[in-house]
Structure formats: structure tokens, C-alpha cells
């Protein structure tokens, strides 16, 4: 379905008289680019964050694609939900659509997001395993090659990974797979090693890294 048609259908489901909630799991956490009246930590079941979406423009090129995070089926994911005020929500949604859906690669969904103040239905940009943009789990050597060389119009895949890792740490979210990747990059001399990455790497070596699905990232939150 064309992205404009998907947007029309989504707007009918939502209804412009209500406030709009948006779920962020990667760059929407550290670069939301919209005004929100409220922001909460949130947990989504049935989906997990994974660095497995090919990026040929934003974080790479057609000749040397990069990677970005996607929300894939299975498991659970901690992130942030944002409440956009009803008066501006329709205009903000159209701006968000231009950013996230220029090619229609995502499947937007309303997902129930558990927050400390209760569950809210939030718009989330998900990706199917069968999408052409969705990659299988890559060998670490291939991931490192991408982290070393992939660069797109918004910067490198490495910068994108670093900023996401930092944003999650600042919110008390421990994503074991992200920290394992950061430790991998540190051992290769691409980033500075951190205690969080070292602990997560040790944890991933001793237990399954997934509360979700094989090869997925697991996300937990610190107490509180």
C-alpha cells in the first residue's frame, strides 16, 4: 500500500480529536523532532529492537549500505512514549510521516505500551522479517566492517549506534545486544570502552542474550 494511503487509514483509526502517542525505540528517543506534552518510559511486548535494517541513504549508501534499528516481531522492547497535543497532533503526524515513511518500508501499528501511569496505545514503526530491508543476523566481522565504513546523509552507522546506546543508558534501559555491539566496537578500537558495555558483553557470554527470539536484543530496565 502507498505510504499516503497507509497514513489515511492510520488517521481514521486514530481520530484527530484525540491526543497522539508515539513509541520511540532508537533515534526517536534522542532526535524526536516534534513537540510532546508528555514523555514516559514504556515497555512493548511482542516486538524487539534489532540493528538489522539496511540503510542505503541515512546511514549508508547503495554501494556501502549501513544499518539502523528496527522493531521486529518477538520478545519485548523498552523505550519512550510521547504524547503529542491534540491541537498539533495531525500536523506533527504528517511531519513524522515524511521522516519515517518516505519509501513506505515500515509497517506502522498501534501498539499497547505499558507505562508507570498505565497502558497507552502508541504509534510504532515496525518491520517484518520478510521485508527486503530486513537482514538476518550478521556475523560480527561484517557488522564491524559496516561500523567502520558505512556513512550516509545523517552520518555513520557507528554514530547512530553510539547515540542510541547513550540515550538508553541515560534512561536506565539496559539493552544487552546493543552493549555487546558497543563492546565489540571498543575491542576493535572504534569507540571507547565503557563499564556498561563490558558488563553486558560478559552477561551475553554467559547467558542467552535474548528474552525475545534467537538473535534479538533483550531490553531490561534498572530498578524503578
Please bin the fraction of helical residues.
25-40%
Q: Which CATH architecture is right?
A: Roll
Strand order of the largest sheet: 1-3-2
What is the total number of structural domains?
A: 1
Strands, total number: 9
- Shape descriptor reads globular
| CATH-level-4 superfamily name | Gamma-glutamyl cyclotransferase-like
Q: Which whole number gives the mean pLDDT?
A: 85
Quote the CATH topology: Hypothetical upf0131 protein ytfp
Tally of individual helices: 7
Question: Into which percentage range does the β-strand content fall?
Answer: 25-35%
SSE string, helices as H and strands as E? HEHEEHEEHEEHEHHE
CATH class division? Alpha Beta
Distance between the termini: 41 Å
As a whole number of angstroms, the C-alpha radius of gyration is: 17 Å
